[in-house]
């Protein structure tokens, strides 16, 4: 397996691992986690969703639905993505965010695969599932990547902060998959995001504990954990022990750290505990999506 493919697979597995690890402590505070677990670092399931060990939530299953839509339709097409998300919701996922539900119900009612701009859409639902877009558009150029991110995002989320964060995360994944290091991700992407949208400033704020579903809180927690640690494991343990929307912060941190550190950095105990069907689906889809991205890159070249 090439280094690029390895990092792509690690990003997808990292997303699922972070999701499953964080789901146990979702909606708990950092103090509550410390009281109950000391440090939460084992894949034990449970939580408010009463999950099995290694079971994932909507973060991973929506990403897989998005990836399948991209592969089946041969690109980033709003109608195919909306239909895939609608099918995902009809299959009764273990959890679903309010903004996602509202957007998909609007699609059912109107057939329009995009929601209008809304001040209520600054949640993290578009960002948590963006990985398949990042892999499938590798090499297409920044403008094309940003447009693809907005196409998938606007099926359910349409807000400038959601768009900016989702696009930034996709570009960071692409850079990491292609070998960028932590400092490069910080200076090329994280700092410019905070510079363009000061709400995202993460270095001068206190530790972001108990981040909610608001995209700003999610990004602050993820960036603090990612840039203040030096391994996949320490990043994931840091971010999920902050509590709050821990399955989503875990998923996003996991995809970034996976892309950055590769499959060799994924803790064996976490990988083995992950739902085997999800582990296989993530690995296979990552390879298919990165091949799509590489084909597009060769065609552009």
What would a concise description of this structure say?
The chain is mainly alpha-helical. It has helices at residues 3-23, 30-37, 58-73, 78-90, 98-110, 125-128, 131-136, 142-153, 160-177, 182-196, 215-227, 232-240, 246-261, 268-273, 276-300. It has a single domain (3-300), classed as Orthogonal Bundle (ADP-ribosylglycohydrolase fold).
Taking pLDDT < 50 over at least 5 consecutive residues as the criterion, the unreliable ranges are none
Radius of gyration: 17 Å
- Choose one word for the global shape: globular
CATH hierarchy: architecture: Orthogonal Bundle
**Number of helical segments with 4 or more residues:** 15
Helix content: 55-70%
CATH superfamily grouping: ADP-ribosylation/Crystallin J1
What structural class do helix, strand and pairing data support?
Answer: mainly alpha
- The percentage of residues in β strands lies in under 5%
**End-to-end C-alpha gap:** 22 Å
What is the count of distinct domains? 1
Q: Residue-averaged pLDDT, rounded?
A: 96
From the 3D structure, determine the CATH topology. Answer: ADP-ribosylglycohydrolase fold
Instruction: Tell me how many strands there are.
Output: 0
Which CATH class? Mainly Alpha
Main beta sheet, described? Answer: none
Order of SSEs, N→C? HHHHHHHHHHHHHHH
